[in-house]
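chain below, 168 aa
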Amino acid sequence: DGSWVEYPELQAQFCAALGRAAGSALVLEGELGASLRELPVVQQSRRICSLLPAFAGNVAPPSAPHDYRDIDLLLVPAELGVAESGAVWLQERVLPARSGLFLTQHLLLLLPRGALVPHLHAAYQRLGSRIGQSGYGCFICGPSKTADIEQALVVGAHGPRSLTVVLA
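prediction:
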């Protein structure tokens, strides 16, 4: 009947859900570029590719999809976040080479604070008829992980070793 779960604080729920998925969420105040430069994942990365207008990386986006494997940190704008699961929606128009989402060592997604929805039903409602109309799109929730190896959770097994979502 459409009576879905609601959360009193979408931001707190999103951060908690992403944490359970082995990702991390940060809420930034102040000037975006300066705040991003202070993050440990940025300071510890040598090869940074940024698709964010407010923050310049030191490496241009690779022309060959497999060259994203040499990027330490990829910064990408995200469109919306799902509080229930900590998932973030990305579309091909912001990252034409989708391999970057899976081959980079560390992934940082910039999400506007006002772009949070309570659950996937609301996410699909917001995306509406655009689904499937603009090429590739996906929800990402946390870094790569598997528990197939001796039943032990391994983070970064076959994709990014970390995922940071910055709410700004």
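Helices lie at 10-20, 32-37, 40-43, 100-103, 120-127. Residues 49 and 57 are 5 Å apart (CA to CA).
thats it, cya
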